[in-house]
Amino acid sequence: MDYWTLGLHMTDTSSTSKSRLAKASTFWRSYSKNKGALFSLFFLIALILAAVLANYLFPGDVEAPNIAREMLPPSFSAILGTDYLGRDQLALIVFGARTSLIVAFAAGGLLAVVGTMAGLMAGYYGGKMDGLIMRCADVFLTIPVLPLILVIVALTTPNLVNVMFAIGLTGWPVMARVVRSDSLALMKREFIEIERVMGANSRRILFKHLLPNQLNSILVYASLSIPAVILTEAALEFLGLTPLSVSWGFMLNVAISYWIRGTWWMSFFPGFAIFITALAFYFVSEGLKEALNPKLKRRRESLAAQIAERKK
Amino acid sequence: MLAIGDKLKQGAFSMKVILEVEKLCKYFQVKRTLSEMRSNTTRIVKAVDNISFKVMEGETFGLVGESGCGKTTTTKVILRLLKPTSGRVLFETHDIHGKFTKSGSSHVHREIQAVFQDPAGSLDPRMTIGQIIREPMDIHNTGNTDSREGTVREMLNAVGLTTEQYSRYPHELSGGQQQRVAIARALTLRPKIVILDEPVSALDMSVRTQILNLLKDLQSQFGLTYLFVAHDLSVVRYMCDHIAVMYLGQIVENCPTSQLYEHPIHPYTRALLDAVPIPDPTKRKTSLDTLRGTMPSPINLPTGCRFHTRCPYAGDICSKVEPEPEFLEFSPGHLVSCHFASEFARKTK
Amino acid sequence: MSVQDLSVRFYLASGVVNAVEHLSFNIRKGVGFGIVGESGSGKTVTALTIMGLLAKPPGRIDSGKILYNGTNLLDLSQDEMRTFRGKTIAMVYQDPMTSLNPVFRVGFQIAEALMVHEKIAQHEAEARAVELMSDMGIPEAQKRAKEYPHQFSGGMRQRIMIAMALATKPDLLIADEPTTALDVITQSQILALLNDLQRKHNMTVMLITHDLGIVAQVCDEALVMYAGHGMELGTVQNIFSHPKHPYTRGLLESTTRADKEVKRLDSIPGTIPDLINPPTGCRFHPRCPLADDRCAKQEPPPFPSGSDSYSKCWRSETS
User: Fold this and answer.
1) Residue of chain B minimizing CA distance to A191
2) What ipTM describes this predicted complex?
3) pTM for the whole structure
4) What range does the domain containing B204 cover?
5) Chain C residue numbers touching B235 (CB-CB < 8 A)
6) How many domains does chain B divide into?
7) Which chains neighbour A (Cβ–Cβ under 8 Å, 3 or more pairs)?
8) Number of domains observed in the structure of chain A
9) What mean pLDDT do residues A125-149 have?
10) d(Cα B19, Cα B193) in Å, to the nearest integer?
């Protein structure tokens, strides 16, 4: 016996007429219930701010070598130590965040746009179009991602933009699958049929009806794909394929050669940065998923009620 | 000053045929199994098989049958969501599946509208009520922003909703209110004919009659023609002037409402009427003349008359030859597809 | 069975749902008892509470007793209730598609009930299952008992459900909208079957439905529920010929008829109330043509109108 059969859906007063502000605050309340997601969100905001304000936080040329301070372990003057060129690691990591965040959002965005378009077309048109798009997706899925990106990057000039494109273009199939299945389900709904009866053209149905009803899941899956993007980007830099001088992956690349000298801070901190950032994005997307999914919300409400009952 | 519809209903209906379905067939292919692909055979579901009927302007024409009889498929073909396998659908004598100019096609979209069964499902959950009702005008670019707003408010009032509902969302409304919105939307561009597919089946009893009465009033007010599809014979009796009964893709009986309920001829119609539970404990059935067996699968249709496997009166000819619809001698406008139609008709006289 | 002053509420974060309030009615042995109501009336919650299947959090039985042959079912433990359920009181649900386990043979599923409650051997139970199936009108029962649910039509599946429910020869059979998912001809077959079984075995049947036609044809006594309250109780003859409660009257007047031509039906205005914030006083007063000030402020008690019948309306006070 679930919520629906008991007729309780009729008394769902949790969604009465609300202004945009009120809706935003309910969303925030639900989102904040997940402490991990909340903390991760604050962390990411702090990271973004730091990356944007990096020039002010660390004035001067961060990349300039300083032979006198080569490979110093963490201390008061250099909180995260210095690298093989004597440069302050904290500064490098904050600047490196720029690269990672730019690639994360750009590649994630590209992947979301391409994947969503493909999924919408496949779901709306069905038949041959669907088959074609899904076979393309399958091709991309069977090719291992990293080698493919290596090839793309090797064939073109290895700069930031190309890296973004490469990662974005290989990540679209998963998004496409999600959007396609949501679209297929929506196409069966009666309101889409009525749109066709009323004479709406394809563009209208695709962008005014199919897309808006999937925004939640698109947002969730886009944010879910970002951790993978970050790791892929770090891997590319680690393998030395992209001479993006200030980046976490490249710092790791260098750190390997110096490992033998016991300079653990040269590999630990960049590595940890990659790990924690990817993890933060993951928690944020999980938090979004729970906050935007009304069914989970209700179950949590009844659980909360049970707990309150037992306390009585 | 009589409403447009009242003039039409006075006495005789307008003799104008507004919608005609002519020998319509819609077949579907069943996905083939490996052995079928080898032997190159295909199973076909004859969802709609050679049906014909005419709807007069201003009347409410009922299409009745159990689930799986093909009535929903028929509505989809009429609404151009599906293409016929063969046969035609004529709206004001034009074949709606034929070639159209863009404006011609747009015209048909505006004149034929629909209201479906699931009140919540037929409304876009992300749009406000106002936006939903305005949608047909936005699609066809009629009037300007102000005139559209005005029409939306007018329609809200016409279906018994307050203008407060304008900025609400579908999930904030009850089922009955949602269906009113769907009706308002359907009537925004003043169509000529509205296809209603089980419009009240998903609603509670106390709301059902409200919506049925609303539909009746709107019909008078706007001079509408309705094609009313349902499985509930009591609802159909209340709403319709003329009824066609469908079974396994074919029309077995087609006649004015009073004829159907007072002098049903086809054994399937009689079985259906017999089975409807009447809310009157004094009219209890003592014996149940129930049908044998169950409805055959539309993939494996019986030979001859499709109903013969369950018919208590089936004769030899019934399993061999498919009956043709024929007019009854003494009932005007009464078509029956049964080999023994005239015998049954004589008996009930 | 005697339900006395039963109140069931659901405690949710969004509020308290008053699903059933102060409900009382009696069912005598061998009677066909119908509970009529629309969505939100509380009829399914009542059935679940009797069967002990209510989800305890968030649901809570705030008051009342359910006396069955003297025992208060609400006092029984989970284990005791489990033996009661299935053996003495059995239930048939609305959707035959999802109520049967798709991976077990049908004969086995019926036999399972017997094996659990009567502790007999499997082959004996399966033989009894075949007998039951043919009693329910399933042709070639011996062969069909070895088949799976998906090989049966909706009507047949419902017959199997009924066979399962009756395997242990229960005293009371609760059928919750047993024919809603079926076509009208199959529906009349199943109703005829239930009628038949009731008379043959002197079984008590509690039929829950929203269809007044079914109540009129199959039941002897009926309870009309609205927004969690029992509004009218009485024999089916009386309820249909002389309905006392305005809601009952409204329902009857707004029911479409296949047996006679009606020019215009009177409909009940308004919508079914929100159970978290129900109307004060009489739950029906916002929609009632006879409502007055008192109706809005004070909830009427059930005024008796004969033995074992009542009408919960201030207008019935004087009669």
Assistant:
1) B122
2) 0.88
3) 0.85
4) 4-15+55-80+100-247
5) 256
6) 2
7) B, C
8) 1
9) 87
10) 8
